[in-house]
Design brief:
The structure holds 2 protein chains of 2 kinds. By secondary structure, chain A is an alpha+beta fold. Helices cover about 55% and strands about 15% of the residues of chain A. Classes of the chains: A alpha+beta, B alpha+beta.
Chain lengths: ~500, ~90
C-alpha cells in the first residue's frame, strides 16, 4: 500500500514521526532532557507479548541492566497500566521504573481521535510540570503542521487534476470557437474529444429534427486496424448515441461513451469508443465530456447561424445580380466558371477562404453601379463619346455607394470601387497605380474583363476564349497587373476550369 | 529521437513540461496554461513546447492565433519518455 492510500490516521502518524525527527524545537527539547529514548507507537500494545516487540522494552532493558525476565515483566506491566490510563485520560502521564528511571507517556490526538502515543523513557529525573507543558505545546504544533501538510496533499490530489481539466476545457473552448465553418468545426470537436479522453474513435452526429434521426457528420478513427468506422445514420432512441439524445444524458458502456450536445435543445451527440490504454470510461471522463459537449453545442449553433446568415447574404447577392443582368440584357451563362477562376487565383495569391468569398461576392456585383447609367449609353453599338464615357466612368463610385448601404457587403465596397483602376495609373475613378490598387480589385479587373469579352450581349458579339486571353496578355503591365495576368493564364488553362468554361459557354 | 529528446531535457523547464504532459496525458493547454503548471517563463516555455513538438513528443493544435499543446498518442514515444523521465 502506498502512503497516500493508508487510512488518514495512519498517514498522520507517519507524517508526525517524520516531522518530529526534524522539528527544531523537538531537537532542543531532546538536548535539554539529555537525550532520553523516544518511542512512538501507533496503537497501545494489548498484551505484554505485543509490548515486548516495541522499542520501549529495549529502552527499559537498557535502564535495568541485568534483570530477570520476571522482574522486567512486572515492571513493564505497571508501565502498560500507565499507558492505558494516559489513553483514558487523554493527558500526559508520568511514570517511573527500575527504581530511578523516569518516563512520560502522551497521547497524540487529532479531532478527538488518538492516532498514536509518544513515550519518553530513560530519564534520570521526573519532568517538571512546566517542562511537560512545553513538551505538550511542541507536540501540538507538530501535529498541527502534519495535519496541514496532509490536507494540502489531499487538496492537491483532488483539486489539481480538476484544475488541469478545467484549463484543458478552457483551451478546447477557445479552439472550438475560433471557427464558424461547420465543415472545419465538427472534425475539430472530434479530434479534441479524442485527445482529452484518450480514445481511439470519435463520431459526431447531428439531429435531423424533421426525420427524427441522427446524421453522421464527422468520424475520426485512429485505430491501427484496417477495419474503419462507417458513417451510419442512427434513429433517435436506438444504440448508445440515439439513447443519449433521447434521454438527454450521457450513456456509458465498457468501451463507449455517448455524450449529448445540449444547448436548450439537443443539437447532436459525440460518441467516443475504445480508450487508448484499453481501460473503461470513468465518471471523470463523463464529467469532462459533459462540459465539452455543452461548449460544442454552442459552437455548432453559432456556426449554423453563421451559415444561415451567409446563405441569406448569398441569396440577396444572387437576387441583385440577376436584376442587374436583366437590366444589361446580358445572357450570363458562366457564373460558376468565373467564381472558380477567382477562387483558384485567390488561393495562388495566398488569400484565405473568407477573402476569396468576399472577392466572389464582388465579382457577382461588380457592375452594380451600371444601374444608374442610361440604357442608351450602356447598349450603344460603336464608340462612346467623351461625355458618354464620363457617365460610364461613374459606375464604380455609384456601385460602391449603393452596396455600402448593405452591411454584410461592406468588405466588397473597395473591390467594386477600384476594379476599373489600371495598373499603369490610367484607370478610373481615382487613377491609382500598381500595388496601391487592392489585390482583390486587381484580380477582379482581369477576371471581369475576361468575362466581359467572352459573354455575348445584344449590342456586341462575344470573343473566343483564346482571343480574350490574348487580349488580356497584351494589356499586362498597362491595364492589368502582370503578375495577376500570369496567374490568370495558368488558372484558365487548368483542366477543371477549362471543363467548366466549355460546359457553360458551349465549347467556344 | 531519443538522443534529441535527451538533449532537450537537459533544460529543467523542458523536463518539467514533459513531466507535466506525461503525468496529465489528457491535458491540452495553451502556452500560458503550461507556464502556470510548471511555474515557468512564458517565452521559455513556448520555446520548449515548440522543441517538443518538433521531436513529436507533443502535438500542436493551432487555429486563428490560438495554440493548444497536447501529449503524443504514440505508445512507443510514451515509453521512451517514461524511461527518460525516470532516469533523470
Amino acid at each position: 500500500m502506498r502512503p497516500e492510500e493508508l487510512p488518514y490516521n495512519e498517514r498522520l502518524f507517519e507524517r508526525f514521526e517524520e516531522n518530529w525527527d526534524r522539528w527544531p524545537e523537538a531537537s532542543s527539547l531532546r538536548k535539554y532532557l539529555k537525550n532520553p529514548e523516544w518511542v512512538m507507537i501507533h496503537k497501545l500494545p494489548g498484551s505484554y507479548a505485543e509490548f515486548k516487540k516495541t522499542k520501549a522494552l529495549k529502552c527499559a532493558k537498557k535502564a535495568f541492566g541485568v534483570v530477570s525476565a520476571e522482574k522486567l515483566r512486572k515492571e513493564m506491566t505497571a508501565v502498560m497500566k500507565i499507558l492505558t490510563k494516559c489513553k483514558m485520560n487523554r493527558a500526559p502521564e508520568k511514570f517511573s521504573y527500575a527504581q530511578s528511571m523516569y518516563g512520560l507517556c502522551y497521547p497524540l490526538e487529532s479531532d478527538n481521535y488518538i492516532f498514536g502515543f509518544i513515550i519518553l523513557c530513560g530519564m534520570k529525573k521526573s519532568m517538571s510540570s512546566d517542562l511537560v507543558r512545553m513538551f505538550v505545546a511542541v507536540i501540538s504544533s507538530v501535529i498541527r503542521e502534519s495535519r496541514k501538510e496532509l490536507e494540502l496533499e489531499d487538496l492537491n490530489k483532488t483539486i489539481r487534476p480538476r484544475a488541469i481539466a478545467l484549463s484543458t476545457v478552457h483551451t478546447v473552448h477557445r479552439l472550438m470557437t475560433s471557427t464558424l465553418d461547420l465543415n472545419e468545426l465538427l472534425p475539430r470537436i472530434a479530434r479534441l474529444s479524442l485527445q482529452i479522453i484518450r480514445a481511439n474513435r470519435c463520431s459526431i452526429k447531428l439531429v435531423d429534427k424533421k426525420r427524427k434521426i441522427l446524421l453522421p457528420k464527422a468520424t475520426i478513427d485512429l485505430r491501427k486496424s484496417k477495419e474503419k468506422t462507417k458513417m451510419k445514420k442512427v434513429q433517435i432512441g436506438k444504440y448508445a448515441p440515439g439513447r443519449a439524445v433521447k434521454r438527454e444524458t450521457p450513456i456509458c458502456g465498457d468501451n463507449y461513451l455517448a455524450s449529448p450536445m445540449i444547448d436548450k435543445e439537443v443539437v447532436g451527440v459525440i460518441t467516443l469508443y475504445d480508450k487508448l490504454d484499453g481501460s473503461s470510461f470513468t465518471p471523470f471522463d463523463q464529467e469532462i465530456m459533459k462540459t465539452l459537449s455543452e461548449q460544442a453545442a454552442i459552437a455548432i449553433k453559432n456556426a449554423q447561424l453563421f451559415r444561415e446568415q451567409e446563405d441569406l447574404t448569398l441569396s440577396s447577392i444572387k437576387c441583385i445580380a440577376q436584376l442587374l443582368q436583366h437590366r444589361s440584357h446580358a445572357t450570363h451563362k458562366a457564373e460558376a466558371s468565373f467564381l472558380k477562376l477567382i477562387s483558384v487565383i485567390g488561393r495562388k495569391v495566398d488569400m484565405n477562404e473568407s477573402e476569396i468569398k468576399v472577392l466572389q461576392y464582388a465579382a457577382m456585383l461588380h457592375d452594380a453601379g451600371q444601374i444608374s447609367i442610361p440604357e442608351r449609353v450602356l447598349e450603344k453599338k460603336g464608340e462612346l463619346t467623351g461625355s458618354e464615357f464620363d457617365i460610364v466612368k461613374t459606375h464604380p463610385l455609384k456601385g460602391a455607394a449603393i452596396l455600402s448601404k448593405f452591411k454584410p457587403l461592406k468588405p466588397i465596397v473597395p473591390i467594386i470601387l477600384y476594379h476599373h483602376e489600371n495598373f499603369d495609373g490610367t484607370g478610373y475613378p481615382r487613377g491609382l497605380k500598381g500595388n496601391d490598387i487592392p489585390v482583390a480589385a486587381r484580380i477582379l479587373a482581369v477576371v471581369g474583363a475576361f468575362e466581359a469579352m467572352i459573354i455575348e450581349k445584344p449590342y456586341r458579339k462575344a470573343l473566343l476564349i483564346k482571343s480574350a486571353i490574348n487580349e488580356i496578355r497584351r494589356k499586362a503591365g498597362s491595364q492589368f497587373d502582370p503578375d495577376i495576368v500570369g496567374i490568370f493564364c495558368e488558372a484558365v488553362d487548368r483542366k477543371d476550369v477549362c471543363k467548366l468554361l466549355n460546359k457553360e459557354l458551349g465549347g467556344r | 529521437m531519443k538522443e534529441k529528446l535527451k538533449r532537450i531535457l537537459e533544460n529543467k523547464i523542458a523536463l518539467d513540461v514533459l513531466k507535466f504532459f506525461h503525468q496529465n496525458q489528457s491535458s491540452l493547454d495553451s502556452v500560458g496554461g503550461v507556464s502556470a503548471w510548471v511555474h515557468g517563463d512564458r517565452k521559455e516555455v513556448r520555446l520548449v513546447l515548440e522543441k517538443l513538438v518538433k521531436v513529436k513528443v507533443l502535438e500542436r493544435d493551432s487555429t486563428g492565433g490560438m495554440e493548444g499543446y497536447c501529449y503524443t498518442r504514440d505508445e512507443k514515444t510514451m515509453k521512451i519518455v517514461d524511461a527518460l523521465i525516470s532516469d533523470v
